[in-house]
Specification:
This protein is mainly beta and 114 residues long. It contains no helices and eleven strands. The N and C termini lie far apart (40 Å).
């Protein structure tokens, strides 16, 4: 059974930072690309960042380049999203995704507001 559990969301002021984590189980994490998506009500889910394995190559949405960093720890079966210089428009529910059976986590809310 594939399981993706996100954590690390919360309320932060503009310019602040958060680090999201996604703990994975039920599949071979070390050979799977992993992605972070985000979604707001009434809008489509959008790709934020992706990281491949084993090369670790990354790609980002233009809106987060230079501010967000995706990384992974294959020994811990965990993927991270470091988010710096957060803006109000980054407010969304953030989801972890693996292409293995097209599996999603339950999401974690990020709210950027003063």
């Amino acid at each position: 059974q594939v399981r993706l559990v996100e954590s690390g969301g919360g309320l932060v002021q503009p310019g602040g930072s958060l680090r999201l984590s996604c703990a994975a189980s039920g599949f071979t994490f070390s050979t799977s690309s992993m992605s972070w998506y985000r979604q707001n009500p009434g809008k489509e889910r959008e790709l934020v960042a992706r990281i491949t394995s084993p090369s670790g190559s990354t790609n980002y949405a233009n809106s987060v380049k230079g501010r967000f960093t995706i990384s992974r720890d294959n020994a811990k079966n965990t993927v991270y999203l470091q988010m710096n210089n957060l803006k109000p428009e980054d407010t969304a529910v953030y989801y972890c995704y693996t292409p293995y059976r097209g599996s999603w986590g339950q999401g974690t809310q990020v709210t950027v507001s003063s």
